[in-house]
């Protein structure tokens, strides 16, 4: 019988080793073939939360001290998001259907309510026991994502040879890490103008993008041992950032990069900027980071345009996930 879930107030090395054991076993069971992040990378993510948020951690052990389940509850400090929480909960495959998940979810839910949250979201692999677990506990699906993978040695020949053809009225620029001062204000406006997107339904508000938040985010990525790469399209007429694409080189996953946001401002759409930006990023990764062999990205199923762009670049579907939301209103 698992022990009662207790928050990890001062986790030590053994706690992180146990956490990694649960995560690795669950990943191998639920998504066979997916690479397992290194323990150091998992620890860095848990101890370095995203800007404007903090993590509350639980590690559940069995009667023999074997790790049984983990949960990370993300609470937000910004007023626009303070009533929303996100949770990542994992039960070791050998301990499922024994009550550990239900008890842990009850504990996490009460903690979110006590923090003043009115909703909570979580993401699970589609078609797994986790999806059924949530449906049976009043969670509602809000976003379905298709995760795609691009093997860089399988990039279609037309894309591989795609020259950096000028787009009339625009120029490309790129940076590593924090946005340069000269572009910071324009990039913050572009991030804010495209915030929400198809995945916005999973959120109850979002903190405003400004220069401070951009730089804080870049510092968090760096502290985790990762690298943030950005390519942006700048409008020649007024110097505004018209679109951008971001990619992270994660720690603990040799050979794989993770595509983050790609967006084009509404007034600049229809000019082929999305494909131009992502093709430029592929060239940059190939030239500057030869150890990267594949890129993974997640795209909302209702974002047909970006799915089409990714398909044209050679991305192929690998797995699907569902984001669920729970209403925490007291009845």
From TrEMBL:
List keywords of the entry alphabetically: Acyltransferase, Transferase
Q: Does the keyword Phosphoprotein apply?
A: no
**Coiled-coil region list:** none
Which Gene3D superfamilies does its entry note?
3.40.630.30
**Record carries keyword Nucleotidyltransferase:** no
Recorded hits in InterPro entries, A to Z, give:
Acyl_CoA_acyltransferase (IPR016181), Bact_Acetyltransf (IPR050832), GNAT_dom (IPR000182)
Query: What are the N-acetyltransferase domain coordinates in residue numbering?
Result: 14-190, 188-331
Q: Which PROSITE patterns match?
A: GNAT
Its name, as the record gives it, is GNAT family N-acetyltransferase
In its UniProt entry, the species of origin is given as Actinacidiphila acidipaludis
